[in-house]
Write a structure and sequence with these properties.
Number of domains: 1
Distance between the termini: 65 Å
Largest sheet: 3 strands, mixed
Order of helices and strands: HEEHHEEEHHHHHHH
Strand content: 5-15%
Strand order of the largest sheet: 3-5-4
Shape: globular
Low-confidence stretches: 1-16, 177-183
Radius of gyration: 19 Å
Number of strands: 5
Structural class: mainly alpha
Number of helices: 10
Mean pLDDT: 79
Helix content: 55-70%
Length: about 270
């Protein structure tokens, strides 16, 4: 009888776990947005205490200018957050966004992203992961119902102290055991974040054509030393091909944004 009840509950959860990504793909998500937000906030706070924050105020203001232009164009429910943007002193070419309105950029990325539009490409991509709920989807798909329920329970009780729970939470967010080391999303997630990301940057008035140049810079930099960002975002040639095919749509969004006076000037 107990097994039948558990099976019944499982079926109900599965049936109620259907979601749709911003790009129209059906998703299987069994963990709620409030839990994911708590995970993101707790993880970002821990990162700020364990990683060095850049004291370059010009870099901080520049990155915030680009990030704010993008987050100001997000759907209403995502603008309820006060998005926190922090530049970390780290030479790896990394950036990330977490549920709960958190964005981090490593100083090393500023050597690869040569202008505001290229930086907007990366930030748009990372914010797209959050809006697409890829972290929640990863919890549901890769960790299974039991772990998802344990994770939800741990978060609801604010239990980040347990080492096993912490590893589960960090992995779900795409963060490695060492803060600043990013774990790869799936190819499907990456493709979605690429396209939705340039939608976001274009709506803010940034030039989506620079997304192609950004990935060319990444590929060129990888000839001598693979940037950390590239290690979690493979196949730059295929990425460039997809972005080029999608470009007419993104350019239309940018033209509409420019017509409304949205012309970012971040330096």
């Amino acid at each position: 009888m107990k097994k039948l009840i558990i099976l019944h509950v499982y079926v109900l959860l599965v049936l109620s776990a259907c979601a749709t990504s911003p790009m129209g793909r059906k998703q299987f998500i069994m963990i709620g947005p409030e839990q994911m937000q708590k995970m993101g906030i707790a993880s970002f706070q821990k990162m700020k205490t364990s990683s060095k924050i850049s004291n370059d105020m010009n870099a901080q203001n520049y990155v915030k200018c680009v990030a704010n232009a993008i987050t100001n164009e997000l759907p209403a429910k995502w603008q309820q957050h006060t998005w926190e943007v922090v530049v970390f002193e780290d030479q790896s070419a990394n950036a990330f966004a977490l549920p709960g309105g958190k964005i981090g950029v490593h100083t090393g990325l500023l050597n690869i992203a040569k202008n505001q539009d290229q930086l907007a490409t990366v930030i748009g991509h990372e914010v797209a992961h959050v809006l697409s709920r890829h972290g929640a989807e990863r919890v549901s798909q890769q960790m299974g119902l039991q772990v998802a329920m344990v994770t939800t329970d741990a978060i609801s009780k604010n239990k980040m102290q347990n080492q096993n729970n912490q590893k589960i939470l960090m992995s779900a967010l795409g963060l490695g055991a060492q803060f600043g080391v990013l774990l790869p999303f799936s190819r499907t997630h990456e493709s979605e974040a690429d396209l939705y990301g340039i939608d976001l940057m274009a709506r803010a008035g940034f030039n989506p054509r620079q997304s192609v140049n950004l990935w060319k810079n990444m590929a060129a930099a990888s000839n001598s030393k693979v940037p950390q960002f590239m290690s979690t975002h493979p196949d730059p040639e295929k990425r460039i091909e997809r972005l080029s095919q999608y470009m007419p749509h993104a350019l239309t969004l940018q033209q509409q944004a420019r017509a409304m006076g949205k012309i970012p000037r971040c330096k």
